[in-house]
User: What shape does this take?
Amino acid sequence: MKTTKSILFIFSLLLVSVCSFAQEHKSLTKFMSFEEAVAAAKKNPKPILIDIYTQWCGPCKLMTKNTFGDEKVANYLNENFYCVKFDAESFDTVRLEVMVKDTVRENGKIVKTQDKPFIVKFANPSPIGTPRSPHQFANSILDGKLSYPSLVFLNPNINRLEIKPGYLTPKQFEPIIKFYGSGAYQKQSYEEFSKTFTPTF
Assistant: This one.
């Protein structure tokens, strides 16, 4: 009986420790897939922030824990952005709907042109399980300059605004996310914005 109680007590301690560890390393920032972010931005326009990372990248893990896990950063991001976390070496397919010009012809003559939806698909070109194989989506959105972590800011129309490579602390991250999250990027340069910026984190 004593042995059973001891085993249950030890198991309880282990369970509490595991739960505490999980909570400590859980990102407070809410992430969604790229497709979900695009759909959300169409319904309720907000900029999109994409965190491009890899499983083996140490600074990426620090960014998740220290920056995206910071309460003030997370609260601001959750309110003002749609956030995406994308593994640059994943084997998932990413789909993006774009509008292309379609011509309507009659008797060989162009009568009119109209916008037509077209689905662009991005995939990992290597066989599943190939180590360190970059995904087409990461390669495309980073212009082939694969550096991890890289943060990509998009406006609600899915136009890229900026790529910020490298690890950023909450203090370094704050003026950048507030520049885009407040919409200041539509009126002034980051240099102008930073001159009057007052940190609150």
